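Q: What structure does this chain adopt?
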Amino acid sequence: MDDEESKCSSGYGKPPWIFKGSALYQFHLVKAEVAKAIIPKEFRLVEAFGYTLGGFFLANYNESPFGMFDELVVIAGIVWNPPVSHAWAARVYVNNDKACRHGRKEFGLPSQVATFSKSIKAISARPKEKSNGFSTINDVGTHDNMNIAEINGHVATSLYDIRLASPVSEMHSLKWMAMGPAIKMSLPSFSGHTEHIPQLLKYYCQIDCRVKPTSPAKVLGLMDRKHTSEIQNAELEESLEKREMSIAVMLSKPILALQFNCLKMEVEPPIVVSKGSHNLS
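A:
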């Protein structure tokens, strides 16, 4: 680690930057070969039996330095840089231009502007057999479907449909029990090695929320490469490959999903760990 670590300056208000809302943090088993295609080669991937721990963080912020917006962070895996291990974001999607610029220029994140289109569909559980022989359906819930499309210029490319289950039957009469116990945690991450921030950075998200396990979201990948590669060049091919690897992360096997309610996240300015290159290939 470089002894001359220094904090990045900010043009987006005084840190720490505070975000409030709700989120889903879903952990996936990601194939090591997929994660290695995304993370810088200088890192050693934390893996076992050919897999690492990745997944995604899907948040809806009702308060932030940039107002209300949605965010999807695709986490490729866990990387080791002695003496600590941190998560590595393969892609970040936000539906707010200012938040996108902030992520790129302050944190060296691979941020992209996207649309988050939401719809709600009612669902019913299996019929319950009564003693009189009649069947009834007592458990009714909803599916929150979210379509995420990346915006490049005037072109929107649909990437994912994410189905979030929210059964009403799981709600408890006491609100605090329905939302889970209160916890505080720190989520460490590495970033950088991008066009805007060639250095390697590290930063921490201090989270205060109520958390409870929930059913994993179902993710469908929607991108059709045929419609996104009409112009063939090396830069486009590299971008498509990284995006496809990010999609592979999203489509990998979920093992745990945590619902964050009453979320308050404080993000400190990143610290420069070392000089580097934005070439991740």
